[in-house]
Model the fold of this input.
Amino acid sequence: MMLEDKVAVMYGAGGAIGSAVARAFAREGARLFLTGRHLARVEGVAKELGSAEAAEVDALDEQAVDEHLQSVTEKAGRVDVSFNAVGVADAEILGVPLVELDADRFSRPITTYATSYFLTARLAARRMVAQRSGVIMTVTGLHSRTGVPLVGGYGPAMAAKEALTRALSAELAPLGVRVVGMRPQAMPETGTIKEAFEVRAKALGMTWEQWQETLASRNHARRLMTLDELADAAVFLASDRASGLTGTTVNLTMGSLDD
Ligand SMILES: NC(=O)c1ccc[n+]([C@@H]2O[C@H](COP(=O)([O-])OP(=O)(O)OC[C@H]3O[C@@H](n4cnc5c(N)ncnc54)[C@H](OP(=O)(O)O)[C@@H]3O)[C@@H](O)[C@H]2O)c1
Done:
């Protein structure tokens, strides 16, 4: 098993990506501490996995994140992986042209994504630096690197997270802590992508099926990635087999975006 005895803390673990990665981490032997803004969703995932622990933690609340990490280190003795899969609801941020967008709606994803990643990474890093090992991980989207209409501040938010991954790694890698992001295209089985389509459906002028085909036609594989494929990549990146990987966001767009 690739993550045997690794202690992993996950934020947004009740979401589509968080729960898929949690399942893959559990399968590979990780000891999981799952957190989310609403306990019920995370508890559902923890129950399904059997051995995982669930807690309600707002990933924007510094004290709550810190107290939770404290409880993890008291129970498990260490933190090996911090995985931030927090997402802002598409309906709150997408669908409005930039020229009509108010500043609050524009800055909400930038503030939320960057702050939550910063807080969870920084507080985990303090424990990881002390133990001289650990991996900090998150997820972004290809909007970080390419213009996409009607996504408001989402692109700048993803770019900020990728810049933070590089900056964190520059400071932490010399101390034994790797920092790695993952940039998938779109996984249509997630509610997020369905919602992202629905809030822009009129402007896109396509059906759900046509939109998926259009997205798929932009990558080399001519199909969209599955959650399981993303989760398998996450397992590798979290494992010691990826010891040479830090300071980068792995391009999982299957050729939709050139490096
Ligand atoms: N899905 C895709 O195909 C895809 C592709 C590329 C990039 N991404 C990115 O990957 C990330 C996760 O996507 P997803 O599809 O898994 O989204 P999701 O299913 O909506 O999950 C996001 C999770 O974040 C939680 N959350 C929101 N605010 C939080 C906070 N302050 N503290 C703790 N938890 C919080 C939500 O919990 P509650 O429901 O309890 O509020 C939810 O469980 C997003 O950044 C998304 O943009 C997704």
Remarks:
- The chain is about 50% helix and 15% strand.
